[in-house]
Amino acid sequence: MKGTVVQRKLAITAAGLSLVAVCYGLARFAYGLFVPALREEFHLDGATAGVIASASYAGYCVAIVVASLATQRWGARPVAVAAGIAATAGTALIASAPTAALLAVGVVVGGSSTGLASPPLADAVAKWVPAHRADRIQAVVNSGTGAGVLVSGPVALLADDSWRAAWWAFAAIAAAVTVWIAFAVPGGPAAVTPGSRTRVLPPGAPRLLIAATALGVSSAAVWTFGRDVLVTEGGASALTSTLVWIVLGAAGILGGLAGDLATKLGTGRAWTATMVALGAATATLALAADHVVVTVPAGAVFGASYIALTGLALLWATRVYAERPAFGVGAAFLLVAVGQAAGAPLIGLLSDTYGPVTAFLVATAVALAGGLVRPARTSRPDAATTADPAPRPG
């Protein structure tokens, strides 16, 4: 029996990390990697590129609400499979898009996959992983974004000028992971404490949601225009700018340590310190865009910080919404996406009007302000309840 539980935990962790990688790292955030090529192909200005990214985040917002409700009704497996299907369809649409309008549709569908992915995976870990391991596994699964970004960079280099070939490769990877998810994620009802009723704003929720929104707004600059700034402002070559993206993704895998970071520092201190790091990296990428010895480590700091912050938000949410973790994670990640949906066109507009440096400094200011919003003491790991959100099967 113990061996079965261990195998199930490993399967959920590996498959969940892979689903996050294809949904976030490929179907959603790889758009920023290809913005220079897409702007040239479809004659897009900065504001339009930002609006397309914003539409992706808007699709995410709708999808995460649907996923939160659907997971509570039908459990994790069918919703996780739906996320993989959306990632596959979105990347295939981008690869085949003949016009900017169809490109936008593909970006929206691909972005929606991320909203479908997070709630069922959080629920699966809450339900099937022992409580003393849950925080670490939640953070490891969440770090799949970095793995996906890491994969997208080399694929882009291998495809060279054929950006469509890169997106077809992303579609093939997404399809394979979708099949894996169908077998790896157990079926059954969602993890719910018997007799519990979800409160939309339980104690601590306003702080969580404000902080999540600030993370979304501040991160939109690099995710949407990071590589474009390196090329247009810094004169970086395709190889150099893609290298920064690869390093960003590789460092993002370190975000899987968010659970350990929260345990050692407390969620509040960890959140503030990491938001400051995110803001500093954002400013550095714009101010020193022409210095590769600076931008490469700045990209690494941004990647590690962003993934760690989403992991901290996830853990924060599972504590504030302890009775229904899928709902809480959905709410927090919804507000991250709302912030990104608002931030992407704003950063694009500021960049067109005042220049990218000013736009990125505005994003930095939002990150610093968001770092001041910290969890209540009761939501810190050392003060949180250690009770399971639901009985552990097996």
UniProtKB/TrEMBL annotation:
Residues 9-382 form the Major facilitator superfamily (MFS) profile domain. One of its GO terms (cellular component) is plasma membrane. The keyword Transmembrane helix applies. The chain crosses the membrane at residues 12-34, 46-67, 79-109, 165-187, 208-226, 238-258, 270-289, 295-315, 327-347, 353-373. It is a multi-pass membrane protein. It is found in: Cell membrane. PROSITE patterns: MFS (PS50850). It comes from the Bacteria. One of its GO terms (molecular function) is transmembrane transporter activity. Keywords: Cell membrane, Membrane, Transmembrane, Transmembrane helix. SUPFAM superfamilies: MFS general substrate transporter. This is MFS transporter. It comes from Amycolatopsis suaedae.
